Known about the structure:
Blueprint: H1 34-46, H2 52-61, H3 63-66, H4 79-88, H5 91-105, E1 112-120, E2 133-140, E3 145-151, H6 158-168, E4 175-178, H7 185-193, E5 197-202, H8 208-222, E6 231-239, E7 242-251, H9 255-260, E8 268-278, E9 281-291, H10 297-307, H11 309-320, H12 334-351, H13 358-367, H14 369-376
Parallel strand pairs: 1-4, 4-5
Antiparallel strand pairs: 1-2, 2-3, 5-9, 6-7, 7-8, 8-9
Helix pairs in contact: 1-2, 1-12, 2-4, 4-12, 5-12, 6-7, 13-14
Amino acid sequence: MSxxxxxxxxxxxxxxxxxxxxxxxxxxxxxxPLSEVLLLALIGVLCGADSWVEIAKFGEKRLDxxxxxxxxxxxxxxxxxxxDIFAMLDAEAFQRCFVNWVxxxxxxxxxxxxxxxxxxxxxxxxAGRKGAIHMISAFSAGQRVVLGQRKVxxxxxxxxxxxxxxxxxxxxxxxxxxxxxxxxxDIARKIRDKEADYVLALKGNQGTMREDxxxxxxxQKARNFxxxxxxxxxxxxxxxGRIETRxxxxxxxxxxxxxxxxxxxxxxxxxxxxxxxFDGKEERETRYFISSLPAxxxxxxxxxxSHWTVENSLHWVMDMVFRDDECRIRKQNAPxxxxxxxxxxxxLLRAAPGxxxxxxxxxxxxxxxxxxxxxxxx
Length: 378
C-alpha cells in the first residue's frame, strides 16, 4: 500500500496485517491514504458511530485524537467518500487481512468454532427489490472472538458460503459446529481437510441420514442399548422457575451407517434429549447430530451447547451494541467490509481490560481518550 509509508503501524499492531490491502484509487488523486481511512472507520465505530455520516462527523470533531497515530494532512473524508472507498475495496482481500490478524492472536486447538448466519434486516432495499444482506460468521466459543465472516452472495445460500469461509480459516485442532443448514458432505470434507473435527446438526434436509440415525436410537433405546456401547452425560439446570434436564447419548459403533452414507471422518452419532419443566408443564425435545469425534458424551454435549454462544456473544452483541439490524449500508462491497470493521471493533473491545459489558466499554471509548488508546494499542 503505497500511501501508508508514514503511518505508524508499530503503534497499532493489528493494522500491520492490512499493509498489503490493495487500493484501486489512482495514487496521484488520493487525498486520504487508505491506512487513515481504515483507522478513522475503526475508531469511529469503537466510539459509537454506526454509519458513514456518523463516522465522517466523528472525524471532523476528533481530528486531534486521530493525529496521535497518523498525519491526516488533508483532514478526513466526507461520508460520500467513505462510502465510495469501502464500496470499492476488495472484500476478499479485506477478509483475508482480518483472518490473518485474528490467526496471529489465537490458537484453536480444542476450541469450539461455531459457524452461523445472520441477516442484516434493515439492509433490504425496496427499490429494485434488493434482498436483505446475509452474513456467515465463524466465532470462537472459548475465546469469544470473531474469526472470520463472509457475505452470502445474492441468489445463493449458506451452503455455498460456508465452504468459502472455511477455506479462509486456520482450524487445525478445532471442533467446528454448524446447524442443520450446514450439514452437507462437502462441508464435512472441507472441515476434515482443514485438520479439524465437526459436530453437525441433523434435520430432514439430509434425506435418509436423519431417519436412519433416529430409527437406530429409537430401536436401541427400546432394547435398553444392549446391542451397542454407549456413553451418556446428563446436566440439570434450574433457572427462573424452570428446570431443564439434558441427556446426551453418544454411539460410535456405526460401521453400518458409514457404509450407507459416505461422510468424511464420520465417527459417532449423538442424541440430545431435553426435558423442560415450568408452570406445571413439561416439554420434550430430541435433537440428533453426527460427528467426527469419538463417542465422548460430555465433550460432545459441551461442544453442542457451546455452539449457541454465537447467539448471545456475537449476534446479540452485534444487534444491541453495534446496531447491526439498523445498518442500511449496502453499496457494492461496503456491507461486507463494514461488517469486518465492526468485528474488528468487537474483538478489540472484548480484549480490553476490565469486567464492564461490551456496551459500557464502547461508551467508555468515547468518554476516555486514554482508554480508547489502550483499546487500539494493547
